[in-house]
Design goal:
Elements lengths: L7 E9 L6 E6 L7 E8 H5 L3 E7 L5 E6 L3 H8 L8 E7 L10
Antiparallel strand pairs: 1-2, 1-3, 4-5, 4-6
Length: about 100
């Protein structure tokens, strides 16, 4: 089964920084209530088992995420296909933050 046939899920990536120099800092299954966030689609395994995902993104006035994966290799291949524009894109590993229910008792 290739990555496009695998079960997919949404994650919400949170960014920090100033316009033009934002960077991704975390991802979570639920959208945060405030702050800059981007919804990305990743393999289901990224939510269930892994503690990080990889993002292919561009900084600048049009900050943009163009790919997300539980593995770095597919994003490296995608960046190589960008040709001369590849230098403007970065791959970053960001932690997946899970919501922990409040303890009762």
């Amino acid at each position: 089964m290739n990555e496009f046939q695998a079960a997919r899920a949404n994650l919400y990536v949170t960014f920090e920084g100033c316009r033009g120099d934002r960077r991704p800092v975390s991802a979570r299954p639920r959208a945060p209530r405030s702050g800059i966030k981007v919804r990305v689609v990743v393999e289901q395994e990224a939510i269930k088992a892994l503690q990080q995902i990889f993002l292919l993104f561009r900084r600048g006035h049009g900050d943009m995420v163009i790919g997300a994966s539980s593995r770095r290799d597919p994003l490296e291949a995608l960046r190589n296909k960008l040709g001369q524009a590849a230098h403007a894109y970065e791959i970053a590993a960001v932690p997946v933050v899970r919501h922990r229910p409040a303890a009762t008792g």
